[in-house]
């Protein structure tokens, strides 16, 4: 939120002032953001304590962690667990409402309360399902796995937007990578795996980079509106990959299904109980973690990372210091595209082993939401991506467990919707404001 | 944080104002036409690469859209929802808002229309009452779905692009559940093999004008005129355009910027909602959950092609719809995938958006110096 002083020092940023003036005018009778959310949590807590807790069946539910005889088990009594969570929600609500006295503890309390949603949903769904036991380690692994393309997409957007270029074309870059990567795999390798499979992943990555290069040409060189440029990327990828599939892939008649093989991390995967599920996976899944660490290090610990960030915050100042804004933006945008291409390969080459029209199915946009959710920081964006991954994994699990309320199965769509709703709430400023790179969206021109 | 705001800070008639004007007004006809021409030529190259004859393919495409009265009617029917949806996007553009959620708004508008249309009391109504009722239902649904991002933007500054993307996903999943759920059955037509809503009452169906063209086309054309009138001949329209060009100036002049944002987003959603209701009422008579997938992007593309001009939306939507309507014949005769049309469409938008390329190719002078290429109208950053 822009303070009056901040708006004065940044005359080219009057937009936030429009909003902040309204929020500043709120007197004692109006609730602040945190207080509003606190009130909601308090009400939810009351409902949980009063209504939900005693409506749940009293039989214990058992959470298992890992496989084998040694796997720890955690029996939970649903009514008491929900009662405890409800009370904690009330406490968090009170702390947030008393923001004047509790200061920054209000935010912490709300963050903890938000985190408690995970056990709440787990306990409730298991108590209402036909089974009373579930294994949490596979659920965790599945969340991470389903979150992989979202996380990679968020990183693609992160590099692009940290350099000051809005990227709503992540979806298109992913789709192009997935499509062209698989077509090359079918043409060269006949869909039978082997070295061609890895080569196709490289092609997918390169195609993502090419699409990003187009984005850079349009939005950096020609200074086209960056959102329009993203729309163009998406349209082109949708049309291009569907065309390729019809013209090239279908006549070939490749029925592949051969995907990247699973690998195990040596030693770590030998750990009893949890080692095997946690440290066995496919290459792109593991590379995601590596890319996250690299992004964090390069962006915040290297001169080039500093240049990218400065170009995204204040390109004119950066230019004055001798940084080539255009080149730096090109590099960052293309790097983002390469990562998006890898995310595309996750779909066609690592997971499914075929290519369908619109295969990425909106993941690029969800990645964008995860990025904003994570306030343009790598690890927070990772958290956002995993929230979406968890919702997807839980949705499948709940269908599998026959969770039913009042005799009707709980629709998996409700769980799929949850992260979108959370994103909107976060974006609306409930849990701290998301402040994007200052120069994002503004085409750079030396003459200004 | 757009260049136009920066320019306005310099006082007077800012550079940004010129940029907006340039983007929407200068060479409004020639550049899109040249862009279409370049896209068609490049599309021809793609056809050659795919091993077909471009002349034959384009001829089949043309005949597929306009070869017979039935085909013309089919192309018009295909274009009808695009007019309303693109109008929604264009209207929001005028206030400097980027409504990427036309898809969700169409869907919710169609959903409310399909829901209201199956009410028991609808059965006996004459068409004069029934049609307005379902269209109004679409307006309410669309306005609600468009109003949410408006309120959030006005009150908290949440960027409408992200909120509408999220709302698209929510609308899609909710519709999926409402229409396809078998336990409990909510809107599902159990006698149908595919998930769809029950057919709406006969009195709520829009009649066909000729061939497959239904009354919705006239409704869409009237809406275009209405939007033009509101934008250019009313006080509200003046405020909307002022907020779009320079929100600070609008605020200093005593206009309510947040109020305008909410109003514009709700109206934009309502326009898309009518288009959705029109497809339910005039087309099939029921709603399928996947019925509007991809319409949001088409709507954005058409609105860009029309440079947010309410009347220009009509030819742009007709171009879009007839390309799609003609594609099957092209596939049949030239053996080319209908997706070629999608590539051509993307290329059209590419050259319309990056008009610097077209201007360079055809030596069209950029009338106001370099500002023409700097029309940073929409990408204002996220959420601040």
Write up what this structure looks like:
The complex is a heterodimer of chains A (448) and B (384). Chain A has 448 residues and is mainly alpha-helical. Chain A has three domains: 1-30, no CATH class; 31-128, no CATH class; 137-427, ABC transporter involved in vitamin B12 uptake, BtuC, CATH 1.10.3470. Chain A has 19 helices and seven strands. Chain A has helices at 4-9, 15-24, 33-55, 78-97, 99-102, 105-115, 117-128, 136-162, 170-189, 195-221, 226-252, 275-279, 283-301, 303-313, 315-320, 325-352, 363-373, 378-400, 412-427; strands at 61-64, 73-76, 133-135, 263-264, 280-281, 404-405, 408-409. In chain A, a hairpin with a 2-residue loop joins strand 6 and strand 7 (408-409). In chain A, helix 14 (303-313) packs across helix 16 and helix 17 (363-373) crosses helix 18 (378-400). Residues 1-28 of chain A have low confidence and may be disordered. Chain B has a two-stranded antiparallel ribbon. In chain B, helix 6 runs antiparallel to helix 7 (127-156). With 384 residues, chain B is mainly α. Chain B has a domain at 84-306. The longest helix of chain B is centred in the middle third of the chain and has 30 residues, at 127-156. Mean pLDDT of chain B is 85; it is low at 1-12 and 369-384. Classes of the chains: A mainly alpha (448), B mainly alpha (384). Chains A and B meet through helix 2, helix 11, helix 17, strand 7 and helix 19 of A and helix 1, helix 7, helix 8, helix 11 and helix 13 of B.
């Amino acid at each position: 939120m822009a303070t009056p002083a901040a708006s004065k020092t940044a005359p080219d940023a009057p937009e936030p002032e429009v909003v902040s003036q309204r929020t500043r005018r709120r007197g004692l009778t109006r609730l602040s953001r945190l207080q509003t959310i606190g009130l909601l949590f308090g009400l939810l807590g009351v409902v949980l304590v009063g209504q939900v807790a005693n409506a749940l069946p009293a039989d214990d539910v058992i959470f298992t962690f890992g496989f084998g005889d040694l796997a720890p088990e955690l029996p939970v009594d649903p009514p008491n667990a929900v009662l405890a969570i409800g009370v904690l929600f009330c406490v968090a609500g009170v702390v947030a409402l008393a923001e004047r006295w509790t200061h920054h503890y209000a935010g912490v309390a709300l963050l903890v309360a938000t985190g408690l949603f995970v056990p709440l949903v787990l306990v409730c769904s298991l108590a209402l399902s036909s089974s009373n036991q579930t294994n949490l380690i596979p659920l965790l692994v599945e969340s991470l796995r389903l979150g992989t393309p979202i996380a990679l997409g968020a990183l693609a957007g992160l590099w692009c937007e940290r350099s000051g270029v809005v990227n709503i074309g992540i979806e298109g870059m992913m789709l192009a990578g997935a499509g062209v990567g698989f077509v090359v795999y079918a043409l060269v390798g006949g869909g039978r795996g082997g070295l061609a499979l890895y080569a196709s992943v490289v092609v997918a990555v390169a195609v993502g980079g090419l699409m990003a290069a187009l984005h850079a040409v349009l939005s950096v060189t020609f200074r086209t509106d960056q959102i329009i440029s993203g729309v163009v990327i998406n349209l082109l990828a949708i049309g291009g990959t569907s065309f390729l599939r019809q013209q090239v892939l279908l006549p070939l008649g490749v029925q592949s299904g051969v995907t990247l093989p699973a690998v195990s991390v040596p030693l770590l995967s030998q750990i009893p109980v949890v080692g095997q599920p946690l440290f066995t996976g496919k290459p792109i899944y593991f590379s995601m973690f590596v890319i996250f660490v690299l992004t964090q290090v390069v962006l915040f610990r290297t001169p080039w990372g500093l240049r990218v960030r400065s170009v995204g915050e204040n390109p004119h100042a950066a230019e004055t210091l001798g940084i080539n804004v255009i080149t730096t933006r090109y590099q960052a945008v293309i790097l983002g595209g390469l990562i998006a291409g890898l995310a595309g390969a996750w779909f066609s080459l690592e997971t499914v082993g075929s290519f369908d029209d619109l295969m990425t199915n909106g993941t690029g946009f969800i990645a964008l939401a995860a990025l904003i959710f994570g306030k343009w920081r790598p690890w927070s964006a990772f958290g956002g991506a995993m929230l979406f991954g968890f919702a997807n994994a839980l949705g499948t699990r709940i269908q599998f467990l026959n969770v039913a309320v009042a005799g009707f199965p709980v629709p998996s769509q409700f769980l799929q919707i949850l992260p979108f709703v959370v994103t909107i709430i976060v974006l609306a400023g409930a849990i701290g404001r998301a402040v994007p790179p200052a120069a994002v969206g503004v085409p750079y021109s030396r003459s200004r | 944080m757009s260049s136009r705001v920066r320019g306005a800070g310099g006082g007077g008639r800012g550079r940004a104002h010129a940029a907006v004007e340039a983007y929407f007004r200068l060479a409004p006809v020639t550049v899109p036409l040249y862009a279409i021409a370049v896209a068609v030529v490049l599309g021809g190259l793609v056809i050659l690469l795919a091993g077909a004859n471009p002349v034959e393919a384009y001829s089949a495409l043309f005949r597929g859209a306009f070869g017979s009265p039935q085909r013309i009617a089919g192309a018009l029917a295909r274009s009808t929802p695009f007019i309303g949806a693109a109008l929604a996007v264009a209207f929001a553009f005028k206030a400097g808002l980027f409504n990427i959620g036309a898809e969700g708004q169409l869907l919710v508008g169609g959903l409310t229309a399909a829901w209201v249309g199956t009410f028991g009391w609808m059965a006996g109504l004459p068409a004069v009452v029934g049609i307005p009722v379902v269209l109004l239902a679409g307006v309410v649904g669309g306005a609600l779905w468009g109003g949410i991002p408006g309120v959030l933007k006005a009150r908290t500054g949440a960027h409408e692009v992200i909120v509408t993307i999220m709302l698209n996903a929510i609308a899609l999943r909710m519709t999926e559940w409402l229409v396809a759920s078998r336990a409990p059955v909510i809107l599902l037509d159990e006698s149908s093999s595919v998930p769809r809503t029950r057919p709406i009452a006969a009195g709520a169906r829009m009649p066909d004008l000729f061939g497959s063209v239904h009354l919705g086309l006239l409704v869409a054309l009237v809406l275009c005129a209405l939007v033009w009138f509101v934008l250019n001949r009313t006080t509200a329209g003046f405020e909307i355009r002022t907020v779009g060009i320079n929100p600070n100036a609008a605020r200093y002049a005593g206009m309510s910027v947040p109020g305008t944002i909410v109003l514009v987003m709700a109206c934009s959603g309502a326009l898309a909602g009518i288009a959705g209701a029109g497809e339910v009422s005039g087309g099939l008579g029921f709603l399928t959950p996947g019925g509007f997938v991809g319409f949001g992007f088409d709507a954005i593309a058409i609105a860009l092609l029309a440079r947010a001009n309410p009347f220009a939306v009509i030819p742009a939507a007709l171009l879009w719809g007839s390309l799609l309507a003609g594609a099957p014949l092209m596939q049949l005769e030239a053996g080319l995938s209908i997706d070629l049309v999608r590539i051509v469409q993307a290329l059209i938008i590419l050259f319309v958006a990056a008009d610097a390329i077209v201007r360079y190719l055809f030596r069209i002078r950029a009338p106001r110096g370099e500002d023409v290429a700097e029309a940073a109208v929409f990408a204002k950053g996220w959420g601040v």
